[in-house]
Design a protein that fits this description.
Helices cover about 55% and strands about 10% of the residues. The chain has about 575 residues and is an alpha+beta fold. A five-stranded antiparallel sheet has the order 1-2-3-4-5, sandwiched between helices. The chain has a four-stranded antiparallel sheet with strand order 6-9-10-11, covered by helices on one side. A four-stranded parallel sheet has the order 13-12-14-15, with helices on both faces. It is elongated and about 110 Å long. The model is unreliable at about 435-450 (pLDDT under 50). Bound molecules: zinc ion.
Length: about 575
């Protein structure tokens, strides 16, 4: 794929796989390599390994492996050209614009650029409206009432969409085609086809994507207009389930503290972030989407869920819990106590009780287990039937936990807390566990020891010994030394690659191998080993020659015994002598 001299090859040489992978996986240095939890399968102990020297990765658990492009393609579910572009961007390498890009693709990316630009202009417009108009003054009063001062207003880019109905439209329509105005979601069409502003008499909150570009707005009605909250529709630049509000500013803090606070709406996120707790993101909407969790898992696997304590928030919390557990997150749940007689969302709580009190609650937030058991205990537990309802409420969560030990700990605690007989519960649990979807993949232990040491060593040389891999390949090929070996197909592919004179591309060779051989090749590459030398290569070749001679000797012997009076006996005996002499000399 990355041909010599191509842009892809050049980017790959300059890029650092550790840096690119490090954006998705928390890596720890272990010896020469880095390791972390595999992003492609669920695991508790790291089997995902990255080699900065070879610029490749491999997971000993699920067998995924390859170079920086394979990683990005798998991670971002994109094609090769897109992966090259992404890697170049991430590493700050400039690449020439590909000429052969399709007209369709060009149009799309142009359109996205225009939509982003339009949002930038709308943002400036809304901010000006809040600052400098009479209507804006009323909006400012409302914001102040919610405890948002000038500092917070400018920090979070809060603005105002006036009531007129076409104020923004008049501002934008000279510059942008109607079609794109509608597509952006900033304008709508009435039944007669006439354009008007989607957001009117509303406070505007810009919603930025992970890289900080504004791609949508969330708007709150100023008066009693319905709906209270109105957001941008899905557009080519905005997909609700792929974005977490405030992540662009929270990611540093999340990484540093290794946990994220998950709240419902942007008002909550702002309330938390403005008092200096930066690692907060909002799902913007009551249901958390799987893609949002995947996005978050690039920065941490630990979350405190702090949704509103009303019924909607409660069921949203429970839905989010299942999803987070499925993705192997460590989850705690913060339910804020009422303030006076009001149920408290993070915004209200911080305003009334202060940031320190919130921090304290955050630290004390119980694990999801305790939260759920507390919820089950609120149910009626007076009869056996009622108890089984409570257990049925808990079981689906247990089913989602990938770790068996954790599941077992759960069982004990549920039994204690609900005063159930443990064996009964355990039976229900193991049934639940058996039905757990996405059962873990088999560990490829079989692969780990395939291929004898000499074969493994030679394979490694064919990949790495730039100085003599070609000569080595010639010798192996001419004497047909690798034929019949367990690792024959790996040798065959590497010998062809080495004889072609191209630089070694282990990942490309791997790509053409069958699954078992592909894994074996990666495992060999990740073995601890010293620099290969030509002397060592020669001694490995000799070993293979001996093995070949031994095999042939056995065959000759069998032929002689099967046909002691046949016509070829003389030749066979001569061959036997020759082989025996050779083997004796080698010993
Ligand atoms: Zn894996």
């Amino acid at each position: 794929m990355a041909e010599a001299g191509s842009v892809a090859e050049r980017v790959k040489q300059q890029a650092d796989i550790v840096r690119v992978v490090g954006e998705y996986v928390r890596l720890k240095k272990t010896g020469k390599n880095y390791s972390g939890l595999c992003p492609f399968h669920q695991e508790k102990t790291p089997s995902f390994t990255v080699s900065p020297i070879k610029q490749i990765f491999y997971c000993f658990g699920c067998g995924k492996g390859g170079d920086v492009y394979n990683f990005v393609m798998d991670m971002e579910k994109c094609e090769f050209p897109e992966a090259v572009k992404l890697v170049a961007e991430k590493c700050g390498i400039s690449i020439p614009r590909p000429k052969e890009r399709s007209a369709e693709g060009r149009k799309e990316s142009l359109e996205r650029g225009v939509l982003v630009e339009m949002h930038r202009e709308a943002q400036t417009f809304f901010v000006k409206q809040l600052e400098g108009t009479l209507e804006g003054k009323a909006a400012r009063a409302y914001l102040e009432d919610r405890g948002l001062d000038q500092d917070a207003i400018s920090r979070f880019g809060i603005g105002y969409a006036p009531s007129g109905g076409d104020a923004l439209l008049r501002h934008l329509k000279a510059k942008y085609p109607e079609k794109l105005l509608v597509e952006s979601g900033l304008s709508s069409r009435d039944q007669g086809g006439k354009l008007f502003d989607r957001f009117r008499r509303r406070i505007t909150f810009p919603i930025a994507n992970e890289s900080g570009k504004i791609v949508a707005f969330g708007c709150r009605a100023l008066g009693d207009d319905q709906p209270k909250y109105l957001n941008s529709p899905e557009s080519p630049i905005y997909s609700k389930s792929n974005l977490l509000y405030h992540l662009d500013r929270a990611k540093e803090g999340i990484r540093r503290q290794d946990f994220a606070i998950l709240v419902e709406g942007y008002m909550d996120a702002i309330a938390v972030a403005r008092v200096g707790i930066s690692n907060v993101v909002a799902s913007c909407g009551t249901s958390l989407a799987e893609q949002q969790i995947k996005l978050l898992s690039r920065f941490t696997k630990r979350v405190v869920v702090n949704y509103d304590p009303d019924a909607a928030g409660q069921s949203a919390t429970e839905r989010s819990l299942s999803l987070l557990l499925e993705q192997d997150f460590e989850v705690r749940v913060l339910v804020l106590p009422p303030v006076g007689d009001k149920k408290a969302d993070p915004d209200l709580y911080i305003r009334e009780k202060g940031a320190e009190e919130y921090q304290k609650r955050l630290k004390e937030a119980p694990s999801y287990v305790d939260y759920l058991i507390a919820r089950a205990r609120q149910m009626d537990l007076s009869t056996g039937e009622a108890k089984s309802r409570a257990v049925n409420f808990l079981l689906p969560y247990v089913q989602k936990i990938p770790n068996r030990i954790l599941r077992s700990e759960w069982a004990t605690r549920i039994a204690q807390q609900l005063r159930l007989e443990e064996p009964v519960l355990r039976a229900a649990l193991s049934k639940a566990a058996a039905e757990r979807r996405g059962a873990l993949k088999l560990q490829p232990e079989l692969v780990a020891r395939a291929g004898k040491p000499v074969e493994r060593r030679l394979i490694r040389m064919l990949v790495e010994a730039e100085g003599f891999r070609r000569e080595l390949a010639e010798r192996l090929e001419n004497a047909r030394l690798y034929h019949g070996l367990e690792t024959e197909k790996i040798f065959a592919a590497l010998v062809v690659a080495s004889l072609s004179g191209q630089p070694a591309q282990a990942t490309e060779v791997a790509a053409i191998l069958e699954e078992r051989d592909r894994r074996l090749l990666f495992e060999i590459l990740f073995e601890e080993a010293s620099e290969p030398t030509w002397e060592e290569a020669l001694s490995c070749i000799e070993t293979l020659q001996q093995r070949q001679a031994e095999q042939e000797l056995a065959e000759v012997q069998r032929s002689i015994e099967a046909n002691p009076t046949g016509p070829g006996l003389r030749d066979l005996l001569a061959r036997k002598q020759e082989l025996m002499r050779r083997l004796a000399a080698a010993r």
